[in-house]
Every structure is written in C-alpha cells, then in structure tokens.
User: Fold this.
Amino acid sequence: MAALFGKGKPLHAFQALFDAVDTFLLTPSSVTRNGCHVRDAVDMKRIMITVMFALCPALLFGWWNVGYQHFLSAGVDPAFWPAFGYGFLQWLPMAVVVYAVGLGIEVCFAQWRGHEVAEGFFVTGFLIPMIMPPDVPLWILAVATAFSVVFAKEVFGGTGYNFLNPAIVARVFVFFAYPSVISGDKVWIAHPGMSDAVSGATPLAMESVAQIPSNWDLFVGAIPGCIGETCKIAILMGALLLAFTKVADWRIMLSVMVGGVAMAALFNAVGMTEVPVLTQLLMGGFLFGAVFMATDPVTAAHTRAGKYVYGLLVGLVAIMIRVLNKGYVEGMMLAILLMNIMAPLIDYCVVQIHIRRRKRRITQSKHEKV
Amino acid sequence: MKKYLGPLNRENPILVQVLGVCSALAVTAQLKPAVVMALSVTVVCALSNLIISLIRNTIPPRVRIIVQLLVVSFFVVMVDMFLQAYVYDVSKMLSVFVGLIITNCIVMGRLEAFALSHKPLPSLMDGLMNGLGYGLVLVVVGSLRELLGRGTLWNIRIMPQALYEAGYLDNGLMILPPMALILIGSLIWIFNRKPKNAR
Assistant:
C-alpha cells in the first residue's frame, strides 16, 4: 500500500493525505536508528486531545442551549432531549464544513511543501464552530475558515509558526466582512420562531443595565450567544483541566482576569459604565477567550514574566474596547488578536531585561573580587 | 519593442519591485478610481521621463532630484486640475493621492534609473510601460475588490439579484484597506513563486 505513494509512484500526489491517515489510524513503523533525544510523552497530538476534552463540557452545554433558545423563541416548551438533538444537528454541519475546508487546505499545502499534515487544525476546527453564532450561513463559515487557515497560518509556515490565533482570525473575518450575520439581535438564536416579541440579543448588545440577565443566569449560561461561550461553569471545568494538565498556563488565565477586573473597576469608578465588574467578566466571550484563546501556546507570550504582562493587557484592552466602542461589543477577540501581535515584543523585552540584569550582576561580582 | 514590456511582466513595479504600494492600497476600493489613478500615473511617468531625458545633459548631478521633483510636480498639478475639471467625483474620491503621485517611488525610480541615462524616445516608452504595469495591478485589485465587496463593476451591478436572494452577502472586508494589502500580498505571492525546476 505505502509503496504506491512513494516518490515517482503513481499516487505520489496524495502522499501527504496517505501519511496523515496512516499515522492517525496505525502506529508508524518508522524507528529511530541513530542517536536519540529524550522526549516527553506529551506530544502535540496529546496536547490537542487534552484541549478538545477541556472544550467538551462547553460544547455539550452549547448543543443543549442552542436547541433550548430555539424552542423558547418559538414558544414551545423546551424539553431536554429534543433541545439537545436540535443543537447537535445545528452544530454538526458547521463542524463538518469547517473540518472539510480546513483539513482540505492543510493537506494541499502539506503536499505542496512536502511536509506531513500537522495536527494543529483539530483544535482550531473544534473552536471555530463554538465561537460562531449558531445560525451563521455555512458558506460564510467555509470562506472564513479558508481565509484563516491560508492567511493566518499557512503563509507563515503552518502549525507552530502562526503568530495569530487562526480561530479568532476566522471570527474576526466574519465580523468585518459579514457584520450582519454576527452582530445585532437577530443572529444569536438558531432559526428564531414566529414571535418577534422575543429579543435574542446577547447581553453585550443590550443598551441598559436593567436588560442584562442576572449574574447567576450569565454564569449558568442559558442565554442566547455563541455555541461555546455561554456556560461559564462548563468553561471553568475546562479551565481546571487545562491548568491541571499544564496544557494551558494558569498565569495567563489569571492575569487576564486581573486585567479585566482592574479595567472594569476603573471604568466603574469614573462612571463611564454602569455594568458591574463581575457582570463584565461573565458577559460574552470574555471567559471563553481567557481560557481557550489567550492561552494558545503558539501565539501567547512564552516567558513567564511576559505571560503576566500579556494576560494583563488582554484583559485591559478587552474591557476597554467593550466599554469605549459600542460598535465592537465583543472586544475580547480584538484584544487577543492585538496582544498576539505584541507577544513577541513582550518576550523580547523580558529577555533583554534578564540579559541586562545578569550583565550587571557579573560586573558587580568582578568589582567585589577586585 | 520587447525590452520595454518588462514592467508588464517580470519587472512589474508593484509585484516584483514592490514600489508604489501605498497608493495601490488606497485607491483600489473601486474600479473607477483605480483606472483613473492608473492613467494619471502613466501620463505623469511617461511625460516626466521624456522631459528629464531631453534635458538630462544639462542637469547638474548635485541638484538632479530637485529638478526631477519640479518636472514631476508640474505634470501632477496638470493632471490634478484636469481631473477636477472633467471627472470631479473621481477626483474627490482620489483626494490626496493624486498629489502624492509626486512622491510615487515608481516615477522617481524610473527617472533616476532610466531617463537620466537614456535617449528621449526609449525613456518615453519606459515611463509608459511602467505606468501601465502599475495600472495593470491596480485594475486587477480594483475590480476584485469592487466585485466582491459591492457586487458591482464600474458602479454597474454584476452579481445577480438571485444570488443575494439565495443568501449571498457582499464581503465588507474587501472595501477596507486590510484586504487590499492581503490581495496585493497574494498577487505578489502567486506572481513570484519559484518555477518548479528551480526549487
């Protein structure tokens, strides 16, 4: 079988695809022959799977919530299993489209460049449907996925070389290119029913504080919104798993929270917004972004001190955009993108400070000897 | 003749030399201003090449940049007035970018690299072809952006109404400057890919 795909063999054009399926299903037979490096058992596939496990609670809740919101707006009493099934059927085509488009492009690029297909897209493809409105047209989803895979990832060299989070790029693409499908108050419920009386706005888009659901409702998450972002309990479960397995750094999550709290408190103090601090943190995609997006090990800062600075600025900027610019209610994605761009600079500064401090220490110790 | 065709192909000022990108990003949101801008740059580039080439032996080398600027700005002012007189709406759309042709690297670059050391007629051809090479990219990017961003070309609706009824939406990002950068970047990427045997 493998012989068919070798160099100069008839099916060589599909070598990358064959290799991907082969290593995914079977144990590769290649053996290290000369010299070896000690490697952690946690390889990239394991990390990706852990993130997907951590996303599962939010996804399961999302399935139920999509159906629940749909039946609620249609005026039907939402039972558990029908709602769950409805949400699943709403999510399934989205996931299929995202994976088909994304993996298709990845395989093409891998073949073209003569690489193996990297596993990076599994998590990206898992995230993209979770941060889209449940009703987003599938062709827009396909265009956004293609855009983000090509321009946020492949042009920079593929998995591990991207300096922007591809899932966020996909969402930002939809946000700027097709604003009508991702903002406003019509899009957050899948196929809203006949009654126009039901408002489907996310809490972020609501004008007055009185309209925002209570903190408890925001926390539990039975509110209109993207599939993955509404239930804060499920997100916190994912956060615990990620922090415990050290797949995502708790320092970033914590400092994003601190930054958000500081900025929200400041805006409250000067009277620019009436939304309480805790509500700010529970609204929209802030928590989801802090746990699953800002912590992406490729695009976040890498140094320890840099992680604190990076997270803090994500939180600050997110709340700042949210409060100051009513047009961009979901500031979290823009804040994370902005800090993705800044992360290498932060790391550079941290490393330079370290180098300078060590140099000073050396010169000091020399002086002491003399 | 063949040696002048380089700017349209392997020596394209935007795609290969990456000059004049600033205005290419700014004026390509629609086809009409892109075409007008392309023509303006072609006229300025060709005529100032001709003039500089005619007086090339009398220009003292130490002040040649200032002389070039004078000649270029003369033609730019002419073009600007012409646009304001005959196509006022496009002139408004192009705003400052007509005036900025003075600082367009393609124009200055051709004066320095070609007109100062060549006879008038070849210089005229060189300026013309470089202007057209620049214009070619502008027209391609301009039509892509207008077609995908507004569904129109030259303000005439191209995308059929049935498509919109089937759920198609115009891509708002196409009209914003970032997409111009990405499109021109993609063109450069496609255009400059290595031939298979060179790899």
